[in-house]
Design a protein that fits this description.
The complex is a heterodimer. By secondary structure, chain A is mainly α. Chain A has helices at 8-29, 36-54, 60-63, 73-86, 91-99, 105-132. Chain B has a two-stranded parallel sheet. Classes of the chains: A mainly alpha, B mainly alpha. The A-B interface holds A 1-5, 7, 9, 12-13, 15-17, 19-20, 22-23, 26, 30, 53, 56, 58-61, 63-64, 73, 120, 123-124, 127, 130-131, 136 and B 69, 72, 75-76, 78-79, 82-83, 85-86, 138, 141-142, 145-146, 149-150, 152-153, 192, 195, 197-198, 201-202, 204-206, 209, 215-217, 220-221, 223-224, 227-228, 231.
Protein backbone atom coordinates (compact mmCIF):
# COMPACT_ATOMS: atom_id res chain seq x y z
CA UNK A 1 0.00 0.00 0.00
CA UNK A 2 1.45 3.28 -1.03
CA UNK A 3 0.86 6.72 0.38
CA UNK A 4 0.52 7.94 3.93
CA UNK A 5 0.19 5.50 6.76
CA UNK A 6 1.99 6.45 9.98
CA UNK A 7 3.19 2.85 10.27
CA UNK A 8 6.58 2.86 12.07
CA UNK A 9 7.69 0.06 9.77
CA UNK A 10 7.77 2.60 6.95
CA UNK A 11 10.65 4.38 8.68
CA UNK A 12 12.50 1.07 8.96
CA UNK A 13 11.85 0.47 5.29
CA UNK A 14 13.49 3.80 4.47
CA UNK A 15 16.46 2.98 6.72
CA UNK A 16 16.95 -0.30 4.85
CA UNK A 17 16.86 1.49 1.49
CA UNK A 18 19.38 4.06 2.72
CA UNK A 19 21.63 1.25 3.93
CA UNK A 20 21.47 -0.41 0.52
CA UNK A 21 22.46 2.89 -1.13
CA UNK A 22 25.37 3.33 1.30
CA UNK A 23 26.60 -0.18 0.51
CA UNK A 24 26.45 0.52 -3.22
CA UNK A 25 28.33 3.82 -2.82
CA UNK A 26 31.02 2.16 -0.72
CA UNK A 27 31.32 -0.59 -3.30
CA UNK A 28 31.91 2.05 -5.99
CA UNK A 29 34.57 3.65 -3.81
CA UNK A 30 36.44 0.38 -3.49
CA UNK A 31 35.86 -0.62 -7.13
CA UNK A 32 33.72 -3.59 -6.08
CA UNK A 33 30.83 -4.72 -8.31
CA UNK A 34 27.44 -3.13 -7.60
CA UNK A 35 24.06 -2.53 -9.21
CA UNK A 36 24.80 0.95 -10.51
CA UNK A 37 21.52 1.21 -12.43
CA UNK A 38 19.46 0.78 -9.26
CA UNK A 39 21.60 3.33 -7.44
CA UNK A 40 21.28 5.83 -10.27
CA UNK A 41 17.49 5.43 -10.29
CA UNK A 42 17.39 5.91 -6.52
CA UNK A 43 19.41 9.14 -6.74
CA UNK A 44 17.24 10.57 -9.49
CA UNK A 45 14.06 9.46 -7.73
CA UNK A 46 15.06 11.23 -4.50
CA UNK A 47 15.83 14.47 -6.30
CA UNK A 48 12.60 14.38 -8.34
CA UNK A 49 10.45 13.46 -5.35
CA UNK A 50 11.86 16.21 -3.15
CA UNK A 51 11.42 18.72 -5.94
CA UNK A 52 7.77 17.73 -6.36
CA UNK A 53 7.27 17.78 -2.59
CA UNK A 54 8.69 21.28 -2.23
CA UNK A 55 6.71 22.68 -5.15
CA UNK A 56 3.35 21.14 -4.15
CA UNK A 57 3.54 19.00 -7.31
CA UNK A 58 2.28 15.50 -8.11
CA UNK A 59 3.94 12.97 -5.83
CA UNK A 60 2.38 9.61 -6.57
CA UNK A 61 4.08 9.13 -9.91
CA UNK A 62 7.36 9.14 -7.97
CA UNK A 63 6.06 7.18 -4.97
CA UNK A 64 4.84 4.42 -7.24
CA UNK A 65 7.68 4.31 -9.76
CA UNK A 66 9.56 1.00 -9.98
CA UNK A 67 12.52 1.08 -7.56
CA UNK A 68 11.24 4.32 -6.04
CA UNK A 69 13.19 5.33 -2.98
CA UNK A 70 10.09 6.45 -1.06
CA UNK A 71 6.65 4.85 -1.07
CA UNK A 72 5.08 6.88 1.72
CA UNK A 73 4.56 10.56 2.39
CA UNK A 74 6.25 10.24 5.81
CA UNK A 75 9.35 8.89 4.12
CA UNK A 76 9.52 11.97 1.91
CA UNK A 77 9.17 14.10 5.04
CA UNK A 78 12.21 12.34 6.54
CA UNK A 79 14.20 12.97 3.35
CA UNK A 80 13.18 16.60 3.39
CA UNK A 81 14.18 16.99 7.05
CA UNK A 82 17.62 15.61 6.22
CA UNK A 83 17.88 17.88 3.19
CA UNK A 84 17.02 20.91 5.33
CA UNK A 85 19.46 19.85 8.06
CA UNK A 86 22.33 19.42 5.61
CA UNK A 87 21.42 22.84 4.23
CA UNK A 88 23.21 22.37 0.94
CA UNK A 89 21.08 23.65 -1.95
CA UNK A 90 23.23 21.79 -4.45
CA UNK A 91 22.34 18.48 -2.80
CA UNK A 92 20.43 17.37 -5.92
CA UNK A 93 23.33 17.85 -8.30
CA UNK A 94 25.69 16.15 -5.85
CA UNK A 95 23.42 13.13 -5.34
CA UNK A 96 22.97 12.71 -9.09
CA UNK A 97 26.68 13.05 -9.69
CA UNK A 98 27.47 10.49 -6.97
CA UNK A 99 24.94 7.94 -8.17
CA UNK A 100 25.44 8.27 -11.92
CA UNK A 101 28.15 6.15 -13.59
CA UNK A 102 28.45 8.78 -16.36
CA UNK A 103 29.61 11.59 -14.03
CA UNK A 104 33.05 13.15 -14.13
CA UNK A 105 35.17 10.68 -12.05
CA UNK A 106 36.90 13.34 -9.92
CA UNK A 107 33.71 15.19 -9.08
CA UNK A 108 31.96 11.87 -8.51
CA UNK A 109 34.54 10.72 -5.97
CA UNK A 110 34.01 13.89 -3.95
CA UNK A 111 30.24 13.67 -4.24
CA UNK A 112 30.19 10.03 -3.13
CA UNK A 113 31.38 11.21 0.28
CA UNK A 114 28.53 13.70 0.35
CA UNK A 115 26.03 11.04 -0.72
CA UNK A 116 27.22 8.59 1.95
CA UNK A 117 26.80 11.35 4.52
CA UNK A 118 23.31 12.11 3.17
CA UNK A 119 22.16 8.48 3.22
CA UNK A 120 23.70 7.89 6.64
CA UNK A 121 21.70 10.85 7.95
CA UNK A 122 18.55 9.43 6.33
CA UNK A 123 19.22 6.03 7.86
CA UNK A 124 19.82 7.48 11.34
CA UNK A 125 16.74 9.68 11.26
CA UNK A 126 14.56 6.86 9.95
CA UNK A 127 15.83 4.47 12.62
CA UNK A 128 15.17 7.10 15.26
CA UNK A 129 11.56 7.37 14.09
CA UNK A 130 11.22 3.60 14.03
CA UNK A 131 12.63 3.23 17.53
CA UNK A 132 10.50 6.05 18.91
CA UNK A 133 7.25 4.51 17.65
CA UNK A 134 5.05 3.18 20.49
CA UNK A 135 5.25 -0.42 19.26
CA UNK A 136 9.05 -0.30 19.24
CA UNK A 137 9.54 0.87 22.85
CA UNK A 138 10.89 -1.25 25.65
CA UNK B 1 42.75 3.32 22.43
CA UNK B 2 39.61 1.34 21.65
CA UNK B 3 40.05 -1.63 19.33
CA UNK B 4 37.27 -1.24 16.76
CA UNK B 5 37.62 -4.74 15.38
CA UNK B 6 37.40 -6.31 18.84
CA UNK B 7 34.30 -4.28 19.59
CA UNK B 8 32.77 -5.35 16.31
CA UNK B 9 33.42 -9.01 17.08
CA UNK B 10 31.27 -8.47 20.17
CA UNK B 11 28.57 -6.66 18.12
CA UNK B 12 28.48 -9.34 15.42
CA UNK B 13 28.27 -12.10 18.04
CA UNK B 14 25.50 -10.24 19.83
CA UNK B 15 23.54 -9.92 16.59
CA UNK B 16 24.03 -13.64 15.83
CA UNK B 17 22.72 -14.59 19.28
CA UNK B 18 19.78 -12.26 18.82
CA UNK B 19 18.87 -13.81 15.45
CA UNK B 20 19.21 -17.31 16.91
CA UNK B 21 16.85 -16.42 19.73
CA UNK B 22 14.28 -15.15 17.23
CA UNK B 23 14.47 -18.13 14.90
CA UNK B 24 15.18 -21.06 17.25
CA UNK B 25 11.47 -21.88 17.51
CA UNK B 26 11.36 -22.47 13.74
CA UNK B 27 13.92 -25.25 14.12
CA UNK B 28 13.01 -26.84 17.45
CA UNK B 29 9.30 -27.63 17.48
CA UNK B 30 7.06 -29.99 19.35
CA UNK B 31 6.53 -33.25 17.47
CA UNK B 32 2.82 -33.01 18.35
CA UNK B 33 2.34 -30.00 16.05
CA UNK B 34 1.90 -30.31 12.32
CA UNK B 35 1.97 -27.23 10.12
CA UNK B 36 0.75 -26.63 6.60
CA UNK B 37 3.42 -27.32 3.94
CA UNK B 38 3.35 -23.59 3.13
CA UNK B 39 4.09 -22.74 6.77
CA UNK B 40 6.98 -25.21 6.69
CA UNK B 41 8.29 -23.31 3.66
CA UNK B 42 7.98 -20.11 5.65
CA UNK B 43 9.97 -21.56 8.57
CA UNK B 44 12.58 -22.86 6.13
CA UNK B 45 12.85 -19.41 4.57
CA UNK B 46 13.28 -17.79 7.99
CA UNK B 47 15.99 -20.28 8.94
CA UNK B 48 17.77 -19.65 5.64
CA UNK B 49 17.55 -15.88 6.06
CA UNK B 50 18.94 -16.18 9.58
CA UNK B 51 21.89 -18.29 8.46
CA UNK B 52 22.59 -15.98 5.53
CA UNK B 53 22.44 -12.88 7.75
CA UNK B 54 24.90 -14.31 10.24
CA UNK B 55 27.28 -15.48 7.51
CA UNK B 56 27.09 -12.13 5.74
CA UNK B 57 27.91 -10.08 8.83
CA UNK B 58 30.75 -12.39 9.90
CA UNK B 59 32.20 -12.33 6.37
CA UNK B 60 31.96 -8.53 6.16
CA UNK B 61 33.86 -8.26 9.44
CA UNK B 62 36.53 -10.70 8.31
CA UNK B 63 37.07 -8.94 4.97
CA UNK B 64 37.07 -5.29 6.06
CA UNK B 65 40.16 -3.53 7.27
CA UNK B 66 39.29 0.12 6.59
CA UNK B 67 38.13 2.00 9.67
CA UNK B 68 35.42 3.77 7.72
CA UNK B 69 34.04 0.50 6.43
CA UNK B 70 34.13 -1.02 9.92
CA UNK B 71 32.17 1.93 11.26
CA UNK B 72 29.64 1.47 8.47
CA UNK B 73 29.39 -2.21 9.37
CA UNK B 74 28.52 -1.22 12.91
CA UNK B 75 25.69 0.94 11.55
CA UNK B 76 24.60 -1.88 9.28
CA UNK B 77 24.31 -4.17 12.30
CA UNK B 78 21.89 -1.66 13.82
CA UNK B 79 19.63 -1.73 10.76
CA UNK B 80 19.79 -5.51 10.48
CA UNK B 81 18.89 -5.93 14.15
CA UNK B 82 15.99 -3.49 13.73
CA UNK B 83 14.76 -5.54 10.77
CA UNK B 84 14.93 -8.80 12.73
CA UNK B 85 13.03 -7.13 15.56
CA UNK B 86 10.35 -6.39 12.99
CA UNK B 87 10.31 -9.93 11.53
CA UNK B 88 10.15 -11.35 15.07
CA UNK B 89 6.48 -10.43 15.45
CA UNK B 90 5.37 -12.82 12.67
CA UNK B 91 7.15 -15.98 13.70
CA UNK B 92 5.30 -17.00 16.87
CA UNK B 93 1.79 -16.33 15.45
CA UNK B 94 2.65 -18.55 12.46
CA UNK B 95 3.97 -21.27 14.77
CA UNK B 96 0.74 -21.07 16.76
CA UNK B 97 -1.32 -21.77 13.65
CA UNK B 98 -0.76 -25.53 13.42
CA UNK B 99 -3.20 -27.68 11.50
CA UNK B 100 -5.29 -28.45 14.60
CA UNK B 101 -5.98 -24.76 14.98
CA UNK B 102 -6.86 -23.94 11.38
CA UNK B 103 -10.01 -24.40 9.30
CA UNK B 104 -8.15 -26.79 7.01
CA UNK B 105 -11.17 -27.93 4.97
CA UNK B 106 -12.06 -24.36 4.10
CA UNK B 107 -8.44 -23.52 3.33
CA UNK B 108 -8.18 -26.44 0.95
CA UNK B 109 -11.33 -25.24 -0.79
CA UNK B 110 -9.95 -21.71 -0.96
CA UNK B 111 -6.59 -22.85 -2.30
CA UNK B 112 -8.25 -25.08 -4.86
CA UNK B 113 -10.29 -22.19 -6.20
CA UNK B 114 -7.53 -19.61 -5.96
CA UNK B 115 -5.25 -21.78 -8.04
CA UNK B 116 -7.74 -21.80 -10.88
CA UNK B 117 -6.81 -18.15 -11.48
CA UNK B 118 -4.19 -18.28 -14.20
CA UNK B 119 -1.64 -16.06 -12.45
CA UNK B 120 -1.86 -17.83 -9.12
CA UNK B 121 -1.79 -21.42 -10.31
CA UNK B 122 0.98 -22.45 -7.91
CA UNK B 123 0.19 -20.19 -4.95
CA UNK B 124 0.00 -21.37 -1.35
CA UNK B 125 -1.05 -19.68 1.87
CA UNK B 126 0.68 -19.29 5.16
CA UNK B 127 -1.71 -18.67 8.02
CA UNK B 128 -0.94 -17.07 11.32
CA UNK B 129 -3.02 -16.42 14.43
CA UNK B 130 -3.81 -12.83 15.22
CA UNK B 131 -4.63 -11.64 18.72
CA UNK B 132 -6.74 -8.84 17.22
CA UNK B 133 -10.19 -9.73 16.02
CA UNK B 134 -9.34 -8.97 12.45
CA UNK B 135 -8.57 -10.91 9.35
CA UNK B 136 -5.29 -9.48 8.16
CA UNK B 137 -3.18 -9.69 5.12
CA UNK B 138 -1.94 -6.18 4.46
CA UNK B 139 0.32 -6.21 7.48
CA UNK B 140 1.76 -9.47 6.31
CA UNK B 141 2.68 -7.98 2.96
CA UNK B 142 4.99 -5.92 5.18
CA UNK B 143 6.70 -9.11 6.24
CA UNK B 144 7.55 -9.77 2.62
CA UNK B 145 8.79 -6.20 2.17
CA UNK B 146 11.13 -6.25 5.17
CA UNK B 147 12.38 -9.75 4.50
CA UNK B 148 13.12 -8.78 0.89
CA UNK B 149 14.92 -5.59 1.83
CA UNK B 150 17.13 -7.47 4.26
CA UNK B 151 17.72 -10.17 1.63
CA UNK B 152 18.72 -7.43 -0.80
CA UNK B 153 21.36 -6.11 1.60
CA UNK B 154 22.84 -9.47 2.51
CA UNK B 155 22.56 -10.90 -1.02
CA UNK B 156 20.03 -13.65 -0.17
CA UNK B 157 17.00 -14.92 -2.15
CA UNK B 158 13.78 -12.96 -1.79
CA UNK B 159 10.67 -14.31 -0.07
CA UNK B 160 8.89 -16.78 -2.39
CA UNK B 161 6.49 -14.84 -4.60
CA UNK B 162 3.85 -17.56 -4.63
CA UNK B 163 3.29 -17.54 -0.86
CA UNK B 164 0.42 -15.44 0.44
CA UNK B 165 0.33 -14.74 4.16
CA UNK B 166 -2.98 -14.35 5.96
CA UNK B 167 -3.86 -13.71 9.58
CA UNK B 168 -7.02 -15.02 11.18
CA UNK B 169 -8.28 -14.37 14.72
CA UNK B 170 -6.92 -17.19 16.89
CA UNK B 171 -10.43 -17.88 18.25
CA UNK B 172 -12.01 -18.52 14.85
CA UNK B 173 -10.12 -21.57 13.70
CA UNK B 174 -13.15 -23.85 13.87
CA UNK B 175 -15.79 -21.44 12.62
CA UNK B 176 -16.59 -22.30 9.02
CA UNK B 177 -19.01 -19.44 8.39
CA UNK B 178 -16.89 -16.62 9.85
CA UNK B 179 -13.91 -17.87 7.89
CA UNK B 180 -15.82 -17.23 4.68
CA UNK B 181 -14.22 -13.79 5.18
CA UNK B 182 -10.75 -15.16 4.41
CA UNK B 183 -10.93 -14.69 0.60
CA UNK B 184 -11.13 -10.94 1.23
CA UNK B 185 -7.62 -11.19 2.69
CA UNK B 186 -6.44 -13.05 -0.37
CA UNK B 187 -7.80 -10.11 -2.32
CA UNK B 188 -5.20 -7.93 -0.61
CA UNK B 189 -2.50 -10.30 -1.82
CA UNK B 190 -3.84 -10.06 -5.38
CA UNK B 191 -4.23 -6.27 -5.14
CA UNK B 192 -0.63 -5.85 -3.97
CA UNK B 193 0.67 -8.09 -6.74
CA UNK B 194 -1.23 -6.34 -9.50
CA UNK B 195 0.13 -2.81 -8.90
CA UNK B 196 -3.45 -1.56 -8.55
CA UNK B 197 -2.65 0.74 -5.67
CA UNK B 198 -0.24 2.61 -7.89
CA UNK B 199 -2.71 2.81 -10.76
CA UNK B 200 -5.57 4.21 -8.70
CA UNK B 201 -3.48 6.55 -6.52
CA UNK B 202 -1.84 8.21 -9.52
CA UNK B 203 -5.23 8.74 -11.13
CA UNK B 204 -6.81 10.19 -7.97
CA UNK B 205 -3.90 12.57 -7.45
CA UNK B 206 -4.22 13.88 -11.00
CA UNK B 207 -7.94 14.49 -10.53
CA UNK B 208 -7.48 16.18 -7.15
CA UNK B 209 -4.68 18.34 -8.47
CA UNK B 210 -7.37 20.46 -10.12
CA UNK B 211 -8.24 21.79 -6.66
CA UNK B 212 -5.37 24.15 -6.10
CA UNK B 213 -6.68 25.20 -2.68
CA UNK B 214 -6.02 21.73 -1.29
CA UNK B 215 -2.57 21.60 0.30
CA UNK B 216 -0.18 18.79 -0.63
CA UNK B 217 -0.41 16.99 2.74
CA UNK B 218 -4.22 17.06 2.69
CA UNK B 219 -4.29 15.98 -0.94
CA UNK B 220 -2.00 13.07 -0.06
CA UNK B 221 -4.31 12.09 2.81
CA UNK B 222 -7.31 12.11 0.50
CA UNK B 223 -5.52 10.12 -2.22
CA UNK B 224 -4.37 7.55 0.31
CA UNK B 225 -7.86 7.19 1.79
CA UNK B 226 -9.46 6.86 -1.65
CA UNK B 227 -6.91 4.22 -2.61
CA UNK B 228 -7.47 2.29 0.61
CA UNK B 229 -11.22 2.32 -0.01
CA UNK B 230 -10.64 1.08 -3.55
CA UNK B 231 -8.54 -1.76 -2.14
CA UNK B 232 -11.19 -2.77 0.40
CA UNK B 233 -13.94 -2.80 -2.22
CA UNK B 234 -11.71 -4.69 -4.64
CA UNK B 235 -11.07 -7.33 -1.96
CA UNK B 236 -14.79 -7.63 -1.21
CA UNK B 237 -15.55 -8.16 -4.89
CA UNK B 238 -12.72 -10.62 -5.16
CA UNK B 239 -14.15 -12.54 -2.20
CA UNK B 240 -17.65 -12.59 -3.72
CA UNK B 241 -16.25 -13.90 -7.00
CA UNK B 242 -14.30 -16.55 -5.08
CA UNK B 243 -16.96 -17.69 -2.60
CA UNK B 244 -20.32 -16.19 -3.63
CA UNK B 245 -22.86 -14.64 -1.25
CA UNK B 246 -21.62 -16.52 1.84
CA UNK B 247 -18.90 -13.85 2.06
CA UNK B 248 -21.53 -11.07 2.19
CA UNK B 249 -23.57 -12.97 4.78
CA UNK B 250 -20.49 -13.52 6.96
CA UNK B 251 -19.68 -9.82 6.65
CA UNK B 252 -23.20 -8.79 7.71
CA UNK B 253 -23.17 -11.29 10.56
CA UNK B 254 -19.75 -10.32 11.93
CA UNK B 255 -20.32 -6.57 11.81
CA UNK B 256 -24.03 -6.74 12.78
CA UNK B 257 -24.92 -4.62 9.77
CA UNK B 258 -28.49 -5.92 9.77
CA UNK B 259 -29.35 -3.65 12.69
CA UNK B 260 -29.84 -0.86 10.14
CA UNK B 261 -33.30 -2.36 9.48
CA UNK B 262 -36.44 -1.80 11.55
CA UNK B 263 -39.04 -4.46 12.39
CA UNK B 264 -40.61 -4.02 8.96
CA UNK B 265 -37.25 -4.19 7.15
CA UNK B 266 -37.26 -0.47 6.45
CA UNK B 267 -33.85 1.13 6.27
CA UNK B 268 -33.05 3.29 9.33
CA UNK B 269 -30.95 5.95 7.65
CA UNK B 270 -30.36 8.12 10.74
CA UNK B 271 -29.43 5.14 12.86
CA UNK B 272 -27.13 3.87 10.11
CA UNK B 273 -25.40 7.25 9.97
CA UNK B 274 -25.09 7.37 13.77
CA UNK B 275 -23.59 3.87 13.77
CA UNK B 276 -21.20 4.97 11.06
CA UNK B 277 -22.18 2.35 8.50
CA UNK B 278 -22.93 4.98 5.87
CA UNK B 279 -19.83 7.03 6.73
CA UNK B 280 -16.35 6.76 5.28
CA UNK B 281 -13.40 6.59 7.68
CA UNK B 282 -9.83 7.34 6.57
CA UNK B 283 -9.15 3.59 6.35
CA UNK B 284 -12.45 2.04 5.28
CA UNK B 285 -15.42 2.73 3.03
CA UNK B 286 -18.86 2.51 4.69
CA UNK B 287 -20.15 -1.01 5.38
CA UNK B 288 -23.31 -0.38 3.40
CA UNK B 289 -21.42 0.94 0.39
CA UNK B 290 -19.30 -2.20 0.47
CA UNK B 291 -22.43 -4.33 0.57
CA UNK B 292 -24.00 -2.31 -2.23
CA UNK B 293 -21.01 -3.01 -4.43
CA UNK B 294 -21.17 -6.68 -3.51
CA UNK B 295 -24.82 -6.89 -4.56
CA UNK B 296 -23.89 -5.43 -7.91
CA UNK B 297 -21.39 -8.25 -8.48
CA UNK B 298 -23.83 -10.85 -7.12
CA UNK B 299 -26.20 -9.62 -9.80
CA UNK B 300 -23.57 -9.84 -12.53
CA UNK B 301 -22.64 -13.36 -11.45
CA UNK B 302 -26.26 -14.52 -11.35
CA UNK B 303 -26.72 -15.00 -7.59
CA UNK B 304 -28.75 -11.96 -6.64
CA UNK B 305 -32.34 -13.06 -7.30
CA UNK B 306 -31.82 -16.28 -5.35
CA UNK B 307 -30.07 -14.43 -2.54
CA UNK B 308 -32.78 -11.79 -2.16
CA UNK B 309 -35.35 -14.58 -2.00
CA UNK B 310 -33.71 -16.03 1.12
CA UNK B 311 -35.92 -15.48 4.15
CA UNK B 312 -33.28 -13.88 6.37
CA UNK B 313 -32.44 -10.43 7.66
CA UNK B 314 -29.01 -10.88 6.08
CA UNK B 315 -30.64 -10.97 2.64
CA UNK B 316 -32.88 -8.03 3.49
CA UNK B 317 -29.81 -6.03 4.55
CA UNK B 318 -28.29 -6.69 1.15
CA UNK B 319 -31.51 -5.52 -0.47
CA UNK B 320 -31.44 -2.30 1.56
CA UNK B 321 -27.79 -1.71 0.66
CA UNK B 322 -28.52 -2.24 -3.03
CA UNK B 323 -31.06 0.59 -2.95
CA UNK B 324 -28.70 3.24 -1.54
CA UNK B 325 -27.43 6.10 -3.69
CA UNK B 326 -24.01 7.79 -3.59
CA UNK B 327 -25.47 10.85 -1.88
CA UNK B 328 -26.43 8.74 1.16
CA UNK B 329 -22.77 8.21 2.02
CA UNK B 330 -20.61 10.91 3.58
CA UNK B 331 -17.14 11.61 4.88
CA UNK B 332 -17.30 14.01 7.82
CA UNK B 333 -13.54 14.48 8.04
CA UNK B 334 -13.43 15.77 4.50
CA UNK B 335 -16.29 18.19 5.08
CA UNK B 336 -14.61 19.54 8.22
CA UNK B 337 -11.12 19.93 6.83
CA UNK B 338 -11.52 21.07 3.23
CA UNK B 339 -11.26 24.80 2.59
CA UNK B 340 -14.66 26.47 1.99
CA UNK B 341 -13.69 27.16 -1.61
CA UNK B 342 -13.60 23.42 -2.42
CA UNK B 343 -16.78 21.48 -3.14
CA UNK B 344 -16.70 18.44 -0.87
CA UNK B 345 -19.24 16.47 -2.93
CA UNK B 346 -17.20 16.96 -6.09
CA UNK B 347 -14.05 15.75 -4.37
CA UNK B 348 -15.85 12.65 -3.08
CA UNK B 349 -17.27 12.24 -6.59
CA UNK B 350 -13.74 11.41 -7.80
CA UNK B 351 -13.92 8.30 -5.65
CA UNK B 352 -17.44 7.32 -6.68
CA UNK B 353 -16.55 7.63 -10.36
CA UNK B 354 -13.79 5.04 -9.83
CA UNK B 355 -16.22 2.31 -8.69
CA UNK B 356 -16.76 0.73 -12.15
CA UNK B 357 -12.98 0.62 -12.59
CA UNK B 358 -12.70 -1.49 -9.42
CA UNK B 359 -15.02 -4.06 -10.98
CA UNK B 360 -12.92 -3.99 -14.15
CA UNK B 361 -9.75 -4.53 -12.13
CA UNK B 362 -11.33 -7.46 -10.28
CA UNK B 363 -12.42 -9.03 -13.59
CA UNK B 364 -8.90 -8.59 -14.93
CA UNK B 365 -7.37 -10.21 -11.85
CA UNK B 366 -9.71 -13.23 -11.71
CA UNK B 367 -9.28 -14.43 -15.28
CA UNK B 368 -9.66 -18.19 -15.32
CA UNK B 369 -11.78 -18.35 -12.17
CA UNK B 370 -15.21 -19.74 -13.02
CA UNK B 371 -18.33 -18.14 -11.51
CA UNK B 372 -19.70 -20.58 -8.95
CA UNK B 373 -23.40 -19.73 -9.30
CA UNK B 374 -24.47 -22.25 -11.91
CA UNK B 375 -23.13 -25.25 -10.01
CA UNK B 376 -24.67 -23.97 -6.78
CA UNK B 377 -28.06 -23.41 -8.33
CA UNK B 378 -28.20 -26.99 -9.56
CA UNK B 379 -27.03 -28.60 -6.34
CA UNK B 380 -28.08 -26.37 -3.43
CA UNK B 381 -31.53 -27.91 -3.06
CA UNK B 382 -30.06 -31.39 -2.61
CA UNK B 383 -27.30 -30.22 -0.31
CA UNK B 384 -29.82 -28.49 1.94
CA UNK B 385 -32.02 -31.56 1.92
CA UNK B 386 -29.08 -33.53 3.32
CA UNK B 387 -28.47 -30.92 6.02
CA UNK B 388 -32.13 -30.85 6.92
CA UNK B 389 -31.94 -34.58 7.61
CA UNK B 390 -28.64 -34.49 9.47
CA UNK B 391 -26.70 -36.10 6.62
CA UNK B 392 -23.18 -35.06 5.60
CA UNK B 393 -23.61 -33.88 1.97
CA UNK B 394 -20.40 -35.41 0.59
CA UNK B 395 -22.32 -36.77 -2.36
CA UNK B 396 -25.82 -35.86 -3.43
CA UNK B 397 -28.57 -37.37 -5.52
CA UNK B 398 -31.19 -35.58 -7.52
CA UNK B 399 -34.26 -36.94 -9.24
CA UNK B 400 -32.85 -36.09 -12.66
CA UNK B 401 -29.56 -37.98 -12.13
CA UNK B 402 -29.30 -41.60 -11.16
CA UNK B 403 -25.71 -41.58 -9.83
CA UNK B 404 -24.77 -39.60 -6.74
CA UNK B 405 -22.22 -36.85 -7.42
CA UNK B 406 -19.93 -34.72 -5.23
CA UNK B 407 -21.02 -31.08 -5.02
CA UNK B 408 -18.47 -28.28 -5.50
CA UNK B 409 -17.01 -26.99 -2.20
CA UNK B 410 -18.24 -23.45 -2.89
CA UNK B 411 -21.75 -24.82 -3.46
CA UNK B 412 -21.50 -26.57 -0.11
CA UNK B 413 -20.49 -23.34 1.62
CA UNK B 414 -23.27 -21.24 0.12
CA UNK B 415 -25.92 -23.89 0.60
CA UNK B 416 -24.89 -24.39 4.22
CA UNK B 417 -24.96 -20.64 4.86
CA UNK B 418 -28.40 -20.35 3.30
CA UNK B 419 -29.60 -23.26 5.40
CA UNK B 420 -28.09 -21.73 8.54
CA UNK B 421 -29.68 -18.34 7.83
CA UNK B 422 -33.08 -19.58 6.77
CA UNK B 423 -33.86 -23.20 7.54
CA UNK B 424 -32.53 -24.10 10.99
CA UNK B 425 -36.08 -24.52 12.39
CA UNK B 426 -36.65 -27.34 9.86
CA UNK B 427 -33.70 -29.27 11.31
CA UNK B 428 -34.57 -28.50 14.93
CA UNK B 429 -38.11 -29.78 14.46
CA UNK B 430 -36.65 -33.22 13.70
CA UNK B 431 -34.44 -33.30 16.79
CA UNK B 432 -36.03 -34.92 19.78
CA UNK B 433 -36.12 -32.83 22.94
CA UNK B 434 -35.55 -29.46 21.31
CA UNK B 435 -37.74 -26.41 21.86
CA UNK B 436 -36.80 -25.56 25.42
CA UNK B 437 -33.68 -23.46 24.83
CA UNK B 438 -33.96 -21.75 21.41
CA UNK B 439 -30.63 -19.92 21.61
CA UNK B 440 -28.61 -22.79 23.08
CA UNK B 441 -30.08 -25.23 20.58
CA UNK B 442 -29.35 -22.87 17.69
CA UNK B 443 -25.74 -22.54 18.85
CA UNK B 444 -25.33 -26.29 19.17
CA UNK B 445 -26.93 -27.23 15.84
CA UNK B 446 -25.32 -24.39 13.88
CA UNK B 447 -21.99 -25.86 14.93
CA UNK B 448 -23.16 -29.24 13.65
CA UNK B 449 -24.06 -27.68 10.30
CA UNK B 450 -20.55 -26.24 10.12
CA UNK B 451 -19.02 -29.60 11.02
CA UNK B 452 -21.07 -31.55 8.46
CA UNK B 453 -20.22 -29.01 5.79
CA UNK B 454 -16.52 -29.08 6.65
CA UNK B 455 -16.57 -32.87 6.53
CA UNK B 456 -18.30 -32.80 3.17
CA UNK B 457 -15.71 -30.34 1.78
CA UNK B 458 -12.91 -32.59 3.03
CA UNK B 459 -14.53 -35.65 1.45
CA UNK B 460 -15.11 -33.91 -1.87
CA UNK B 461 -11.55 -32.61 -2.09
CA UNK B 462 -10.15 -35.96 -1.06
CA UNK B 463 -12.17 -37.70 -3.76
CA UNK B 464 -11.00 -35.17 -6.32
CA UNK B 465 -7.37 -35.65 -5.30
CA UNK B 466 -7.74 -39.42 -5.53
CA UNK B 467 -9.28 -39.16 -8.98
CA UNK B 468 -6.58 -36.75 -10.12
Amino acid sequence: MIGRSGDPGDALSLALRARKAIKSLMAIESNAPTNSEALQKAGQNIVDTLQAFRSNGLLFAYLTAPQSFCEKYEQIQILDEVRAEIGDESYGAKLISATSPDSDPTARAANIDFAIEFFTAVESRALLKYNQAPSSHF
Amino acid sequence: MPDLRRELIQDVASLARFIDSVTDLCSVRSGACVHLPSSELFFKYIRGLATATKKYVAKSLAQETRERALLQLRREITVIRADWRFLHRYIKPTLDADTLRLPTALLDCLQDRFRSIQRFGSSSFILFHSADFNYISVRLEKFREYADKLADIIGEDKFPERLAIIGIPYSQSSSLFMNCLIPHELGHHVFAHSALSERFATQFEKELNEYRDIQISMRTDIVVSFTKWVEEIFCDLFAVRMFGFCFSFAYIELFDVSNCLDANDRFLSRFAAARGITNFSPEYPPDLLRLRQQTSLLKTDGWLDDVLAIDSHYARTLEAAAGLTDSQFSWHWLRKTLPDSVDCEKVLGCFFSSLPKINDAMEECTKGLPVAYREWSSSSKWIEECLENGVVPSSIRSRSRTDPWPPAPVSLLNSAYRFYAQSMPKLLRLIEGTGTDPVGERVQWSQKIEMWTSKAIEDVLLTRKRLA
